[in-house]
Amino acid sequence: MKILFLTQLFPYPPVCGGTIRSYNLLRHLGACHDVTLVSFVRKEPTKEEMEAISFLCSEIRTVTIRRSAAANLKFAALSLLSGRPFIILRDRVPAMQSIVDDLAQTGEFDLVYVDHLQMAQYVTGLDSCPKILDEHNVEWKIIERVGENERLSPKGLFALVESRKLRKWELEACESFDCVLTVTENDRRTLAEWNKNIKNIHCVPIGVDFDSFRKVDLRPVSRDIVSIATMSWPPNIDSILYFAREIYPLIKSRVDGVRLVVAGSNPPDEIRRLSKTDGSIEVTGFVEDIYQVANRAAAFIVPLRSGSGLRVKILNAMAMGLPIVSTSVGCEGIGAEDGRHLLVTDGAREFADAVVRLITDFDLRRRLGENGMEFAVRNYSWDSIYRKLDQALEMVGEHREGKRRVPVVSGHPCPDTELTIGDGFRDRGVPK
Known about the structure:
The protein is an alpha/beta fold. Helices cover 42% and strands 16% of the residues. The protein folds into two domains: 2-207 and 382-423, 3-Layer(aba) Sandwich (Rossmann fold), CATH 3.40.50.2000; 212-379, Glycogen Phosphorylase B (Rossmann fold, 3-Layer(aba) Sandwich).
């Protein structure tokens, strides 16, 4: 089967939630099918990065997208004037549309896989074959929560206006696809409740490559509070600023020798300044070996106040056996149990209490780490998620009129059987 795969983030290296998901699903689809990848890039991929992806794809095309504070202000103003969502305007690049149009005319694709909501605008006129939209997040929910947290500030007011526009655009976009994938059941229910015309919605979570992780050796004497996250994502920035300003001082007043370690790529200046104003805060930026940070952890924190989708950083922390404290937003959709697999709490004082519990109770630390690891292995292996993806693809044909013969979507190895697209996909082996 010929698949056109459009993505907003180049899927290698898989270093954040978005690229981890995109890379692994592309790996599954590319193992048996003819995949053409079209991706935005922030900079030209290295030879190593291109080689890592090229064996999965028959063709790769990239379009450079620029981001800057000045450009964001321009698109925010255009959003207010035009009524179109900010993230859609920001990621509207004529060169990308030109490539998609060219491929649509010549490619004769059997399936279009749209990875991230922002890419949906490029396939509005492409109706000759089934289309799947992979909703990494319910995007309007992220902006809505920013507005609720910021309230009457200029940022909060803009977010509330933006969330309403984005909700309308997002729901209409989802309705136009033959299949929509979400990463949590909560996101699936949200879309279904807000627009009952979106019928074919399936939950396909993010997985964890457990072979890439090893269990940390927790140390009873550790006093380090650790965050490992992509620090260019606005909800992560907000969460660390919130923790450093409102929660961390409460912990410092109760625990001697405590330290806050903030690891993750591309921290902005406002995050870097934390270490300059408080000597007990370390901002590492990108770390080549995350165990340099993880092995020091007494508590792994996820103090998110906004966001949607599924936080892969929690799954990665569980894969390493780290004890976790998260807000309810942070662990939303994962299905882990408070007090058994991690500690879940909201409010600055309550969050501080939970972190202090972990620092001062090594048995609790060890128990949560072991239970969390077992939970993640049982529920988030890629093999189980590939099966869910295949089950979702089975239903795509039911949303198309007419019958067309295409190769079956399969795991490893590829069977020789075919199916009728109007009848859905069926009868495949267990995916690798």
